[in-house]
Design brief:
Helix content: 40-55%
Largest sheet: 6 strands, mixed
Shape: globular
Radius of gyration: 18 Å
Strand content: 5-15%
Distance between the termini: 50 Å
Strand order of the largest sheet: 3-2-1-4-5-6
Length: 210
């Protein structure tokens, strides 16, 4: 799956996943902050730009779009108030970089998609299924394990954060121990600490030994 790709393949970029990863990568490395002469932070913009250029050079995507989170509360937050309640606010210096990331995408003529009340995951999942039904192949560019439930024979996931590791149905089974269509059940049982979602298994255990 390396090199140039078939003409009918759509790449869907999980934008915020890589923006946050780019921002925190510098902090984890202990390197000094990257700033312009006027003091604007640039590490997220710089690393995200490098990822886009590598993606374009290595795979020459015939179709590509960047998916963003919508502003304001999402339908998940309305249904479950504790959803992501354990997350801290976006650092101000990261928030300042988002407009510049969008300008990079615009300069590269990569369309940006976002829909009020919906997360990027929702949009990526919907597009992946619709495009798949229309006969195109889909590549989800993400490091989010939740996306693995979308993998099929025509939908794969590419994780640039793991040296461009590709996930097809067999790779998902090797990685998680279940088939893609079982990922949703696995995550429902385990829960997700990152999103502050308790798993069904945790609830059963807690009530049993309370």
């Amino acid at each position: 799956m390396m090199g140039r790709v078939p003409s009918k393949r759509l790449f869907l970029i999980d934008s915020f996943g890589f923006i946050f990863r780019a921002y925190h990568a510098r902090a984890r490395s202990g390197a000094p902050p990257m700033r312009t002469s006027t003091g604007i932070s640039t590490e997220a913009v710089y690393i995200f730009n490098n990822m886009l250029r590598k993606l374009a050079k290595q795979y020459d995507p015939p179709y590509i779009t960047a998916i963003f989170e919508s502003g304001g509360p999402t339908h998940r937050e309305q249904e479950f108030a504790a959803y992501k309640a354990n997350r801290s606010e976006m650092p101000p210096d990261l928030g300042d970089q988002i407009p510049y990331v969008r300008r990079v995408l615009e300069a590269m003529r990569i369309p940006i998609l976002e829909y009020k009340g919906f997360e990027a995951d929702d949009v990526i999942g919907t597009l992946a299924r619709r495009v798949e039904r229309d006969g195109l192949e889909v590549v989800i560019v993400s490091s989010d394990k939740d996306m693995l439930q979308l993998v099929t024979d025509r939908v794969s996931m590419l994780n640039p954060a793991k040296d461009d590791e590709w996930y097809d149905p067999e790779k998902v089974k090797t990685f998680l121990g279940v088939r893609p269509e079982q990922v949703i059940d696995l995550l429902a049982l385990k829960g997700d600490a990152i999103d502050n979602i308790p798993g069904a298994a945790c609830k059963i255990t807690s009530s049993r030994f309370a």
